């Protein structure tokens, strides 16, 4: 097979009622990567994921999963992928152990090949193995959904907005586990998010989806490194009378004794900005850089490069 875990060609989805959620997606996801699908709400990310998962029927196009054509080899393609859905749909009458066993049964995993205990431990639910799902917290349910996605030992793990509305502890635990599955088992990971920072931190490659189309696709470094507008926010020991400005560096006072310095990364380096600050004799108590948000990214991308 090719080196792609997923290959998508001309994928379209029009929902009953006429909503065109996907308008011809071409996308490949390399084996072994952590791949981010980044896009605002309503972009079509879940539609794409749910087609991969076999939960939504595509209107047109070709999807191959781990080399298996989804239409010609539905069983093999389904066995190659595990999906943690965005919706928290769990049967309230199952315990985590029961839910994992049932799921393994659905995928035809023989009893001797089941790793229920190992998965319970991986998602941190070993203490809750016998608790009914309805008594689990939102975070625990999400972890159980991750466990369910893993029962059949898929090559590819897909996470649809895994951290939307979860607390920071669970978020970090999820990311630790995802990185481990990627590094130790070579699992290909696809995740959707509408947080730029999350995509930037986690992913090797990113596709930006907007209005059912791929707006851009590149390595994380190339894609987000291209974003030109940067802001450095400094906290001076004493607020200077004259703000540190120079050609290419604009300064603005912010509440709380802060100064925001904006510049274009292609023309000015962070070092240039810091040099200017030092030249003006400003002593720093704190420095941080500010991320462009997703809207800025879209603006940048549509201005600076043709749509992919
Ligand atoms: P995302 O996951 O990026 O937020 P979705 O794939 O959920 O986007 O939705 C893409 C578009 O398709 C949205 O306009 C949404 O309202 C619409 N949509 C999603 N699911 C359905 C459905 N079952 N029936 C009709 N329209 C839908
Ligand atoms: Mg979604």
In words, what does this structure look like?
By secondary structure, the protein is an alpha/beta fold. Among the domains are: 4-80 and 154-224, 3-Layer(aba) Sandwich (Rossmann fold); 228-291, Alpha-Beta Plaits, CATH 3.30.70. It contains ten helices and 14 strands. The strands form three sheets. The protein has a six-stranded mixed β-sheet, sandwiched between helices. A four-stranded antiparallel β-sheet has the order 2-1-4-5. A four-stranded antiparallel β-sheet has the order 12-13-11-14, with no helix packed on it. A hairpin with a 3-residue loop joins strand 12 (249-254) and strand 13. The protein starts with a strand and ends with a helix. The relative contact order is 0.14. The mean pLDDT is 90. The structure holds adenosine-5'-diphosphate (ADP) and magnesium ion. Adenosine-5'-diphosphate binds next to helix 1.
List keywords for this structure.
binds magnesium ion; 10 helices; Rossmann fold; four-stranded antiparallel beta sheet; Alpha-Beta Plaits; 14 strands; binds adenosine-5'-diphosphate; six-stranded mixed beta sheet; 308 residues; alpha/beta
Hetero groups: adenosine-5'-diphosphate, magnesium ion
Distance between the termini: 25 Å
CATH superfamily of the domain at 4-80 and 154-224: P-loop containing nucleotide triphosphate hydrolases
Number of DSSP E strands: 14
Q: Return the CATH class of the domain at 4-80 and 154-224.
A: Alpha Beta
CATH architecture of the domain at 4-80 and 154-224: 3-Layer(aba) Sandwich
Parts with pLDDT < 50 across at least 5 consecutive residues: none
Mean pLDDT: 90
Structural class estimated from helices and strands: alpha/beta
Taken in chain order, the helices and strands follow as: EEEHEEHEHHHEHEHEEHEEEHEH
Shape: globular
Instruction: Summarize the biggest pleated sheet.
Output: 6 strands, mixed
Give me the CATH fold name of the domain at 4-80 and 154-224. Rossmann fold
Question: What fraction of the residues are assigned to beta strands by DSSP?
Answer: 25-35%
Number of helices: 10
Helix content: 25-40%
